[in-house]
Amino acid sequence: MSSAIPWIGFVVIVVSMLAFDLGVFRRGRDQPPPEPTVGASLAWSAAWFGLAAVFGASVSVALGPDKGLEFFTAYLVEQALSIDNLFVMMLVFASFRVPRAAQRRVLTWGIAGVVVLRGLMILSGTALVAQFHVLTYVLGGFLLLASIKLAREVGREGAGGADDDQAHRRTSRGCVRW
Q1: What's 156's DSSP letter?
Q2: Average pLDDT for consecutive 10-residue bins of the chain (178 residues)?
Q3: Is residue 36 part of a domain?
Q4: Which helix (H) or strand (E) segment is 122 a member of?
Q5: Angle at the Cα of 150 (from 146 to 151), degrees rounded to 5?
Q6: Global confidence as pTM
Q7: What is the DSSP string of 4-56?
């Protein structure tokens, strides 16, 4: 049970910080949140980075410098991946023509869904790969085929025609209503 206490504390802290982050910027449903300035964005980024640094330092003190280094390494990798996610979200918003007013809401629910789905995929994926090692080759092949298909479609912009535009409009309207 003693090994579960730090994890429980970690989950409580993360959920509390998410609630704080969403609660601070969450105004009334009829009032859109203010457009963030560069200075405000940098200040919030520094605050979250500071919290991660304090957490990493506490990991180093409690579990040793090797575990602290592992935390900071993982944190930097996640920061690099978050930049990648930023570009993906920009492409998704542009592709589905999500209105500016609905982007924050879509992004919030998208991130919440990704966190839950990522946890489920990690748990189920590690269990499946541990059981069936050959699955790594099958999944690798799937990624290769998907990337080839995507590379071919990029060259044919607008290949979907009117049906493609209708799908984008329906999806965009559904996101705004939801």
Answers
A1: S
A2: 78 82 62 78 91 93 94 92 81 86 81 86 90 90 87 64 58 55
A3: no
A4: helix 100-131
A5: 120
A6: 0.55
A7: HHHHHHHHHHHHHHHHHHHHHH---TTSPPPPPPHHHHHHHHHHHHHHHHHHH
- Cα 2 from Cα 8, distance rounded (Å): 10
| Secondary structure (3-state) at 126 | helix
- The parent domain of residue 171 ranges over 99-178
For 101-116, how does the pLDDT look when each residue is reduced to its tens digit (9 = 90+)?
A: 788 778 878 888 888 8
Flag whether 149 is in a domain. Answer: yes
> Does residue 38 sit within a domain?
no
Long-range CB pairs of 52-60 (<8 Å, 24+ gap) are 55/13
Q: In the chain, how many domains are there?
A: 1
- Those residues with Cβ within 8 angstroms of residue 94's Cβ, 6 or more apart along the chain or in another chain: none
pLDDT in tens, 146-177: 888 877 877 665 545 555 566 556 655 655 55
Residue 30 lies in a domain: no
